[in-house]
Write a structure and sequence with these properties.
The structure is a single chain. The protein is of the alpha+beta class. The chain folds into two domains: 2-244, Regulatory protein AraC (Jelly Rolls, Sandwich), CATH 2.60.120; 248-350, Arc Repressor Mutant, subunit A, CATH 1.10.10.60. Helices cover 37% and strands 17% of the residues. The chain has helices at 60-69, 179-189, 200-213, 220-244, 248-259, 267-274, 278-289, 293-311, 317-323, 329-340, 344-350, and strands at 2-6, 82-86, 96-104, 110-112, 120-129, 131-135, 138-142, 146-152, 156-159, 167-174, 192-194. Strand 6 (131-135) and strand 7 form a beta hairpin. The termini are far apart.
């Protein structure tokens, strides 16, 4: 694993000294198509004063207060640089490919990910100011304590909006092995996750960037271990935030979770329960969870059917179909095969070799009072 460290025009505009200029894609003309300079020649930004007493991580609000008290600029107390890693191994592991800390003050800062040639998943965590993410025609503000997640290349764009004069952030670039987790997060919170400035995950990002800056990744495996740990914690944070937020769209989702076995459950009943029109429900459900209400209901029913097939060997196919909301055994079989690639009875036989089968869920089971 080889580390490279430098300043990249357009993306890693250190303290706004390296500014992108207007033009195609609104990036620096000296950068390559994917926004990287082949040979960075700009001087590194001066190192901010040491605000980390006794080796402890100083939270951003406290750091700002200290710097303002000393008459300095309110900036995060670490060097603003970008660090990248090259790997010689051909193992398909989730890895951290790059990390950085950046302050943007120019409205020429804009990354159109449809034109990118580099491939990675980006996590960008706002420390101060405000940025914006445009994805699927929806503009998401990215405020302090929030992180956005995107797959690059892709149909997204992030930039410094006109109503913001600065955007300071950590960014982390991961290999594509994290895509399943990214999509899972999209299904619960969308592309923006509320992390919090003084949270364990925020401190983890500080530590991860510091490791990269100080070349403390001894091996590929240590890099991968920390990358996996970060994504596990990020996913847990996103799922926790999703549970804390309840809206009419969330109520519609919860209604499906609790009533999936009803054979008369349809879009009309779900919309009526949530107090929304079918059109608005479909639109907002897609934006909130990345799928349609109908698709989500089908996924719930099939997940429950799989659980019954694995744990209740005495049930007939017709009984299982009825228990998950299908009145027709034939239709249930067609839907199951289309989604799972095999008929229900074959799926059942594959799990018959175990004495006991335990179901493991993504979130803790809620106990009934």
């Amino acid at each position: 694993m080889v580390k490279y460290c430098g300043i990249r025009c357009g993306r890693e505009a250190v303290l706004s000294k390296c500014r992108s200029t207007p033009g195609t894609g609104r990036t620096c003309p000296s950068a390559t198509r994917d926004g990287r300079r082949d040979k960075p020649r700009l001087p590194a930004a001066p190192k901010p004063p040491d605000l980390v007493p006794d080796g402890k991580i100083l939270t951003f609000p406290a750091a700002c207060a200290t710097m303002k008290a000393e008459g300095g600029a309110a900036m995060y107390p670490l060097e603003h640089k970008s660090v990248g890693f090259r790997f010689s191994s051909d193992l398909s592991l989730l890895t951290l490919k790059g990390a950085g800390l950046q302050l943007v003050e120019s409205h020429t800062y804009c990354w159109d990910n449809r034109e990118r040639r580099d491939e990675h998943c980006l996590v960008q965590f706002c420390l101060d100011g405000q940025g914006a993410l445009l994805l699927d025609g929806i503009c998401y503000p990215v405020r302090p304590g929030e992180a956005f997640l995107v797959d690059i290349p892709g149909k997204s764009r992030y930039f410094l909006p006109d109503d913001s004069d600065r955007w300071e952030f950590f960014f982390f670039e991961f290999s594509k092995e994290c895509l399943p987790l990214l999509r899972r997060i999209y299904g619960h919170t969308g592309p923006v996750v509320a992390v919090g400035l003084d949270s364990p995950l925020a401190r983890q990002m500080d530590a991860l960037y510091t490791r990269a800056l100080q070349d403390q990744f001894a091996t590929l495996y240590e890099n991968s271990r920390l990358a996996y740990g970060f994504w596990m914690d990020l996913t847990a944070c996103a799922l926790s935030a999703a549970r804390d937020s309840l809206s009419r769209v969330d109520a519609a989702k919860a209604f499906m979770d609790q009533n999936y076995a009803r054979q008369d459950l349809n879009l009309d009943r779900i919309a009526d329960h949530a107090g929304l029109s079918k059109y608005y429900l479909c639109k907002e459900f897609q934006r909130r969870f990345g799928t349609t209400p109908g698709r989500y209901l089908r996924e719930i029913r099939l997940a429950k059917a799989c659980s019954l097939l694995m744990t209740n060997t005495d049930y007939t196919m017709e009984e299982i179909a009825n228990r998950v909301g299908y009145s027709s055994n034939n239709y249930f079989g067609k839907v199951f095969r289309a989604e799972k690639g095999m008929p229900p009875d074959q799926y059942k036989r594959q799990n018959a070799r175990y004495d006991l089968v335990r179901s493991v869920y993504e979130t803790p089971k809620i106990r009934q009072e």
